[in-house]
């Protein structure tokens, strides 16, 4: 990154090489960093990020807003209703399709 840049990670831990980031900030290559996720969460009390004033850390709450919470709740209820009413669930919302299909089998027998 260009000298004087800031690194911001609100995605997933492990995307950032934390050792390299710390070295880049301490050397002045980077002006600082803002991190919301870490390779190990939560970072231990001895993690060097805590002592580096140019690195700001948050407790993996970057996406926690009122709007996001409401959206998650609405999507969860929609998903439950879709499953109970037998509608196909979009692949993006399925974590384990085989488990879902297995859970539907007893319901199908009850309807027969």
From TrEMBL:
<feature type="domain" description="D-isomer specific 2-hydroxyacid dehydrogenase NAD-binding">
    <location>
        <begin position="1"/>
        <end position="62"/>
    </location>
</feature>
<comment type="similarity">
    <text>Belongs to the D-isomer specific 2-hydroxyacid dehydrogenase family.</text>
</comment>
<dbReference type="InterPro" id="IPR029753">
    <property type="entry name" value="D-isomer_DH_CS"/>
</dbReference>
<dbReference type="InterPro" id="IPR006140">
    <property type="entry name" value="D-isomer_DH_NAD-bd"/>
</dbReference>
<keyword id="KW-0520">NAD</keyword>
<dbReference type="InterPro" id="IPR036291">
    <property type="entry name" value="NAD(P)-bd_dom_sf"/>
</dbReference>
<dbReference type="Pfam" id="PF02826">
    <property type="entry name" value="2-Hacid_dh_C"/>
</dbReference>
<protein>
    <submittedName>
        <fullName>Phosphoglycerate dehydrogenase-like enzyme</fullName>
    </submittedName>
</protein>
<keyword id="KW-0560">Oxidoreductase</keyword>
<dbReference type="InterPro" id="IPR050418">
    <property type="entry name" value="D-iso_2-hydroxyacid_DH_PdxB"/>
</dbReference>
């Amino acid at each position: 990154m260009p000298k004087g840049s800031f690194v911001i990670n609100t995605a997933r831990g492990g995307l950032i090489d934390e050792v390299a980031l710390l070295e880049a900030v301490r050397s002045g290559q980077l002006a600082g960093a803002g991190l919301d996720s870490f390779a190990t969460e939560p970072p231990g009390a001895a993690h060097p990020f805590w002592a580096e004033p140019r690195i700001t850390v948050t407790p993996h709450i970057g996406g926690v807003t009122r709007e996001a919470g409401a959206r998650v709740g609405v999507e969860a209820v929609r998903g439950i209703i879709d499953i109970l009413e037998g509608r196909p669930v979009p692949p993006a919302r399925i974590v384990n399709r085989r488990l879902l299909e297995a859970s539907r089998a007893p319901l199908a027998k009850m309807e027969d």
